[in-house]
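Example 3.2
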Amino acid sequence: MEEEVMFKEERQAEILKIVERDGRIGTALIQRKFSVGYGTARNDLDELAEKGLLKRTHAGAVSIRTEGVGQSAGIHGLSAKERCEEVKENYRRIAEEAVRRIREDEVVFLTSASMGYLCASAIPDGLRCTVVTNSSSVAEVLRKKPGVRVFLTGGEMEENGNFYDDFTLSVLKQFRFDRAYLTAAGLSAEFGMSAQGSGSVGVYRHVIARSREVCALFPAEKIGAEYMRQLCEAEEIDVLITEESASSTELTALEEKGVKIVRV
C-alpha cells in the first residue's frame, strides 16, 4: 500500500515537471508516459488542480503561471510591447504564419494582446494594407511600416495602453474587416475563446461581427483551457493557427465545429 501511494506521488511530481516545462499536459500523454488508464490520469490532474498546482482543461491541464508571454502578478498593467520582452519562440512562429495570410489592400484588425504586437512587428515593409487596433503599442510599431495605413480606435486608455470603452466600440462599428487576428487566455471546442476578465468582451464581439475571416492565434498550452468570460463560440472562428503539439483531441473537436486548423 505504501509503495502504491509513493508511486502516485512520484507520478504527480513528474506531471508537474512537464507542466512547468511545457506549460500544459494532456491526459493522453499521461496515459502513454506512465502506462496508466484514462481514469487514473484524470484523477491525478483533478487532485493537482484541487491543490492549486495547475488548472484543469477539457483535455488535460495548463500551468497556472504560464498563460502567455512574460506572465507575472502585474501582467494586466503591462502593454503588449512590455509583455514581449520575454517572448516565447512559439508565439513568434504563430504570428509570422498569421501575417503571411494578409493580402494586399486588405483591412485587418490586430488584437491588443502580445500576439498582436508580434504580428505587427512581422508585417513586411513592402506589404500595403490597412490595420485597425485598440492598442497604442501595436499602433506604434505599425507607424514605422511604410505600406500600412493605421487606425487606432482611441477611447479612454487603460494602464496597459489599450482601449475598450464605449468610444472604442463606436469607432469599431465604422469598419468592416477582411481578417481579424484574435487571441485570449484559452480556447476550447466546448466554450470557445475565453478570458479571465471582462474588458475585451465588447471589443471582440464587435470585431467578430464585422469580420470576413476570424483567425484565432493560440499556442499549444492555451488549447483546451477555459476561463470565466466567453468571448465567442468556437463556431465563430474560421481559422486557428497553433502548434503541432496542441491537443489532437481538442483540435479534432474544433475541426468538427468548422474551424480550419493551421499547425506551425
